[in-house]
Amino acid sequence: MTSQRPIVALSTGDPGGIGPEICLKAALDEDVQGLCRPVLVGDPMVMAAHIEGGGLRCAVDPVSSLADVNGATNHLPLIARDHFSDAPFQMGAITAQNGAASVDTSVTAIQMALTGDVTAVVAAPNTKSSINQAGIDYDGHLSLVARETGQSQEDIFMMLSFGQVNLAHCTLHSSIRRSLELITRKRVVSVIRAVHETLIATGTSAPRIMVSGVNPHASEGGLFGDEEAQIIAPAIADARADGIQLEGPVSADLMLHRDDVDAFIVMLHDQGHIPAKVMARHGAAGVIIGSPIQFASVGHGSALDIAGQGIANPDAMIEAIRWFFGETQLP
Fold first, then answer.
1. How far, CA to CA in Å, does 229 sit from each of 218, 225, 240?
2. Ranges 122-136, 213-227, 244-258, 280-294: which has the least confidence
3. Mean pLDDT for the stretch of residues 173-186
4. Which CATH number do you get for residue 104?
């Protein structure tokens, strides 16, 4: 029955970017509607602007209660937020109003997940410049989820997922210098455990995990640094003592050739994001692991230059929704 399918909140992200459009397209996808009941979170006027500008054949219906979310239709349920009653909406622009609106949609969806009203949250991209103009401290969805769920940012991590590839990061949005300070034995053990527990929870009974080094060639026996010997290898040994199947530290540039591994862990943002964007282009889901809620975002930006034109690709949004149900379809 329709009412038995879980409800997934789609946070529409930066209203001036492609977020509302890819949320609309994902919510209209037949496979998505077969897996869950998508509900949008955003401003009705913004949604109408994206529907009209993109020539989309749908409408949004504000709902006062999630009990009113019935399922498959081209009349999409919307948790309505009022973001522009006292300020003009600008499509494709970096503005404080757009920044504040994007954070509000994410926070609203996260709170719905914390109260159990929705099973999961999938968030469209935000624009950091707009959020900074609004005076809000923000460096990505990871820190926002940590703040709203009362967790330390040190305890949750981002894992890019596409097809059969799961690629987690020990550090994310920090400078290389700061990232090297953050890579500690404790933190590496924490990300290993978070990945292991996530894979177990999603149906992999005995996960096999590969951990990268931080230096070129994983330091090649100490020739290019000692972080592998002093930090990463001891952390791997600690996690192995808990019965986790691990390999590493290995060179980050060789890892993804392996197809017998359930998840990869890299130390730095670009060690994971560059190969993910090459391999999956616009189709990677950014899943937050170690959090009390199920939250994923897309692995691309808000593309202000094509906003409101109806040409945005919703694949990453759809992939993120599918991920929660074990239905990823990218190669």
1. 9, 9, 16
2. 280-294
3. 94
4. 3.40.718.10
Give the number of domains in the chain: 2
> 1 pLDDT band (50/70/90 cuts)?
very low
Which residue from 299, 283, 214 is spatially nearest to 253, judged by alpha carbons? 214
| Same domain (yes/no): 166, 196 | yes
Shared domain for 208 and 316, answered yes or no, is no
| 113, 74: one domain | yes
Distance CA 12, CA 128 (A): 15
100: Cα within 13 Å, side-chain hemisphere: 13
Structural domain that includes position 37: 1-152+291-331
